[in-house]
Specification:
Radius of gyration: 35 Å
Shape: elongated
Bound molecules: adenosine-5'-diphosphate
Strand content: 15-25%
Helix content: 40-55%
Low-confidence stretches: 406-410
Strand order of the largest sheet: 2-1-6-5-4-3
Number of strands: 13
Length: about 400
């Protein structure tokens, strides 16, 4: 009995030892497998990280990343070559180290920096108008594309890629110069055609019959369209080349607008349109570049007339906006701008489908010029429009713009 009890206890102990040994070998083997797997994963992660770093590092474009508070967390090698930024920038706030300037040489505040804007607006921001000002006072024209970084639906930072576009800008300049020269040379023969066709139509070179008169009218109208196009091209190239220097002089806005209305009176009467003009008398001491403002008014007013059907109404208003600005609005009740066209409306040569379908002539250069003028005069432009209800263009300008000359040219 006693031995049986002792034997069964020994058996239990033995069983226990076997069990412990089993656990030891089983988990020992298992943990060695897990450890190996962990090491493998660590190595793969390190290889991936090294590969990503090598990829980002060898990109020819500059890459800068920030966290969601705008603190720099990454700069690649190209930044070192292009703007002399290295790893010592990591941890610094973008606002404290930003080297961005606009085309006039003015420092761009951090709120307007594409990296900051893409964080606040939570969308991609692209800019081609900025320069990086390097310490040695040379500047670099750059194309910047900034994107927010999302993780599980939340913005955790932003990444910016920038590219040196000095060469593209130079090619653009050469193209503008060519357009300028070509359009300048085209003006003289076009004026000659105009002059002789007018002479033929008036019968000064001998009598012409009704059919001949109609053919000449077609030639005259076609030539007029070419003259308009050439003038637009000439003005666009002047604005692009910056050869139209801003000259601020005291200006009487009311008479400037009234002159533009007068120049369009034949069409306004032809289309039986009503046109109103109101300039608030409180606005005093306006300074602007008369040539540029005339060009702007001419484009906005002729567009309102062109893109409004017979019997339509146009309201032109100038009202104070705070103490230092005024707001010009040109409203019509015409064809409107379709939703799909709104984003592209200030692009060179763009025309919306609804007016193209009506065969209204145009060059698609007017609003591009208007926008460029607004930028040169330190203003802002926007519009509201509904198809077949009408369009209002708004332009705000400082009463006394401060035009800074670009000081740094590469
Ligand atoms: P253009 O009038 O010579 O075509 P613009 O650059 O002045 O060129 O205008 C570009 C396009 O914007 C026009 O073709 C037209 O589609 C649209 N647009 C401009 N102004 C108006 C307006 N007041 N009403 C409706 N559409 C307009």
């Amino acid at each position: 009995m006693f031995f049986t009890a002792v034997n069964s206890m020994m058996f239990v102990e033995w069983l226990f030892i076997v069990f412990i040994l089993f656990l030891y070998f089983y988990f020992g083997k298992r943990s060695r497998v897990i450890l190996k797997e962990l090491e493998k994963e660590k190595m793969t992660a390190e290889i991936n990280r090294a590969r990503e770093e090598a990829m980002l590092g060898s990109i020819g474009d500059g890459v800068v990343a920030t966290d969601k508070n705008g603190a720099i967390i990454f700069v690649n090698k190209a930044c070192q070559e292009m703007i002399a930024w290295d790893d010592s920038m990591i941890g610094k706030k973008l606002g404290d180290v930003s080297l961005l300037s606009d085309e006039t040489g003015k420092h761009v505040p951090v709120e307007k920096h594409p990296l900051h804007l893409c964080l606040t607006k939570q969308k991609k921001i692209i800019s081609t108008n900025y320069h990086f000002v390097k310490k040695d006072k040379m500047d670099l024209a750059v194309y910047i594309s900034a994107m927010p970084i999302f993780f599980k639906g939340k913005v955790i930072g932003a990444i910016e890629v920038f590219r040196d576009i000095t060469q593209e800008k130079e090619i653009d300049r050469i193209k503008s110069e060519f357009v300028f020269l070509a359009s300048h040379q085209l003006r003289t023969p076009l004026s000659t055609i105009n002059w002789y066709v007018e002479m033929l139509m008036s019968g000064d070179a001998g009598p012409i019959n009704e059919d001949q008169k109609n053919y000449l009218k077609e030639v005259y109208q076609g030539n007029q369209r070419m003259v308009e196009m050439v003038n637009d091209l000439l003005n666009v190239s002047r604005l692009d080349l910056g050869t139209l220097a801003v000259q601020l002089v005291p200006t009487d806005l009311k008479s400037l607008i009234e002159d533009e209305i007068k120049a369009n009176l034949p069409t306004i009467e032809d289309k039986k349109m009503i046109i109103n003009c109101e300039v608030d008398t409180e606005i005093k001491g306006v300074e602007t570049d008369i040539k540029m403002l005339k060009m702007l008014l001419q484009n906005l007013i002729t567009n309102a007339i062109k893109y409004t059907p017979e019997g339509g109404k146009i309201d032109i208003k100038v009202a104070p906006q705070g103490k230092k600005e005024y707001l010009l609005s040109v409203a019509d009740n015409g064809y409107g701008i379709p939703e799909a066209s709104k984003e592209k409306i200030f692009t060179k040569l763009y025309r919306a489908d609804n007016v193209m379908a009506k065969e209204i002539t145009g060059t698609g250069l007017g609003l591009y010029m208007v926008k460029s003028i607004v930028e040169k005069l330190q203003g802002k432009i926007w519009f509201e429009s509904r198809v077949d209800k009408g369009t209002t263009f708004f332009v705000s300008f400082p009463i006394k713009p401060v035009i800074k000359k670009k000081t740094i040219i590469i």
